Amino acid sequence: MTEKTTKKQVGFEVVHLDDLPPTQCPCGTTRRAFAGTADAPASLHRVVIDKQAKTHYHKKLTEIYYILEGEGVMELDGQEVPVKPGSSILIRPGCRHRAVGSMTILNMPIPRFDPNDEWFD
Question: Domain 38-116 adopts which CATH fold?
């Protein structure tokens, strides 16, 4: 029985974000759960935003950001929106965005994250 088959038979998958290796991303450092799970409808990322986050957009992905800690602003299509713990932001495909400030967020890309769908101007 393959791991994939086992996952489907069990009906769930558990990931501890702290156990995942950190990866550099346009926003800082991320730990990505379910990004490599072929049948996952979304992925979940915990991202530590650094002050050098790059403006980017996605052609297919919708993202939902949830601010866990820290404060700053989200730049969304040129508008600055203040954010703090508890803020949620729905970012549709084509919206140029970046987080500015020192914060930790949860990010849920829908469909699951695809590294080929990160675009920079």
Answer: Jelly Rolls (2.60.120)
